[in-house]
Design goal:
It contains 15 helices and 17 strands. With 437 residues, the protein is of the alpha/beta class. The protein has an eight-stranded mixed beta sheet, with helices on both faces. A six-stranded mixed beta sheet has the order 12-13-17-14-15-16. A three-stranded antiparallel beta sheet has the order 9-10-11.
């Protein structure tokens, strides 16, 4: 089968929807010889910052000379971004081979009632590839939730829970406490847990779960802390106090919120070093070398184009804070391109961003869940804003270029699907954008 045919097969599995529970993945991995038991791991759940934190931990582990696997989702441009060895994306030929292998396990080696979902198959592919490539450590990001997520079959050395906010209410719950209970499902017996600063209700849920599992809990700004030194485009610098004191840690990512993510990664590295004294991790170098696209990323200079995957109210507010800083000193106007999924909190995402945009363009990525530009326009009309629409992200970028004047900043946001198509339109290689998860 070709690579394109394989991707079509994988996304065809979406007809099975989302199935929460570990039965399918347990049976699949058992048939494959339990590959997830062949490496040590760090498990990451949360609402915002999972991918950035995972990339940071992966980078720190690589500075220690370890061979690492990194499993994240969704991808921005190419499916191969989801599965990496030592920061290198899985080759397309291996995607084809692994998909065939897992499909054979599901169809031929197990009972007829096993109908694995897209994410279950991809998780199995990642774990088989990590074992085959003999990784020492794997950094694993949950797909959705935690308790019943396919990745929750692993037994990590540290569990990490990033900032929890409202998202996927139809699956995880309508209150932050309900969502936290699902995310806290990754907490394992006696396995240390690192978490961001949370609302009191969320923190109480996490404390109760950790206590029940006798899992030591490290809370940001309580058990370890950081002080922001500078936050400039492309760089965040802070002072860290934990088991050690770092007078200056520098991360090549934009936004003050990256201090929190980097602090979670630093605390995780401290716990790993304490648990495995033979480890030699250069935390500062690992964080200085990290790369993670799609988060406050400047993808063009002429004209200046910033992309950010803000896809829930909490992430949108963080983006708004960053943009207000840019408007105060670097740019005169913002041309906003917005594409949002229809099942998201559209009002909550647009509310902090619409007032900052002098020109507004609504669009829709080529994905079935995308809200139409006309639906998004209704939100802006309520704020008294005039808008333009474009049927595609590429078309929206063309329209924005036509509106651009010196001193403007073009901002593309609202969904990872939207910014993924923007990156593709700007020259990044991808395949079957319309099929992304």
């Amino acid at each position: 089968m070709s690579y394109q045919g394989t991707i079509e097969y994988l996304y065809g599995l979406q007809k099975f929807g989302m199935k929460f529970g570990l039965d399918n993945i347990t049976r699949l991995l058992a048939a494959a010889g339990d590959p997830h038991k062949a490496f040590r791991s760090v498990h990451i759940a949360g609402t915002n910052g999972k991918g950035s934190t995972a990339a940071m931990i992966d980078s720190i582990l690589r500075t220690g000379g370890f061979r690492t696997g990194l499993f994240t989702s969704p991808h921005l441009v190419s499916f191969t971004e989801r599965i990496r060895i030592n920061a290198q994306e899985i080759p397309e030929a291996e995607v084809v081979s692994l998909a065939d292998e897992v499909r054979a396990l599901a169809e031929d080696g197990l009972d007829d009632d096993l109908c694995p979902t897209f994410f279950e198959v991809v998780t199995a592919m990642a774990f088989i590839w990590f074992r085959r490539q003999k990784v020492d450590w794997a950094v694993i990001e949950t797909g959705l939730g935690g308790r019943l997520d396919a990745t929750n079959i692993i037994m990590p050395e540290v569990s990490v829970i990033t900032k929890i906010g409202h998202d996927h209410a139809e699956f995880l719950g309508t209150t932050l406490e309900e969502i936290a209970a699902e995310k806290a499902g990754i907490i394992k017996q006696a396995v240390p847990v690192v978490t961001a600063d949370q609302t009191p209700g969320v923190l109480q849920v996490l404390k109760q779960k950790a206590a029940a599992k006798q899992a030591p809990l490290s809370v940001f700004m309580k058990d370890f802390s950081s002080e922001l030194l500078t936050a400039s485009p492309g760089r965040t610098t802070f002072r860290y106090t934990g088991s050690r004191v770092f007078e200056q840690i520098s991360v090549p990512l934009s936004g003050a919120h990256q201090m929190t993510n980097a602090s979670l990664a630093t605390r995780t590295a401290e716990l790993l070093s304490a648990r495995f004294p033979e480890m030699s991790l250069d935390i500062q170098r690992g964080l200085a070398d990290v790369s993670w696209p799609g988060r406050l990323e400047m993808v063009s200079d002429a004209p200046p184009i910033l992309i950010d995957g803000a896809h829930n109210p909490q992430a949108a507010e963080a983006l708004a804070v960053y943009l207000r800083g840019l408007l105060a000193k670097d740019y005169e106007r913002i041309i906003g391109i917005f594409g949002v999924m229809g099942d998201k909190d559209i009002s909550g995402i647009l509310r902090p961003l619409i007032p900052l945009a002098s020109e507004i363009i609504f669009t829709a990525p080529a994905y079935g869940r995308a809200a139409s530009p006309e639906r998004l326009s209704q939100e802006a009309a309520q704020a008294g804003k005039q808008v333009r629409t474009a049927p595609t992200v590429a078309g929206a970028l063309g329209l924005a270029r036509g509106l651009y004047q010196p001193g403007d900043l073009i901002v593309v946001t609202g969904s990872f699907y939207t910014i993924g198509e923007a990156r593709e339109a700007l020259g990044c290689k991808g395949i079957l954008t319309r099929l992304r998860e």
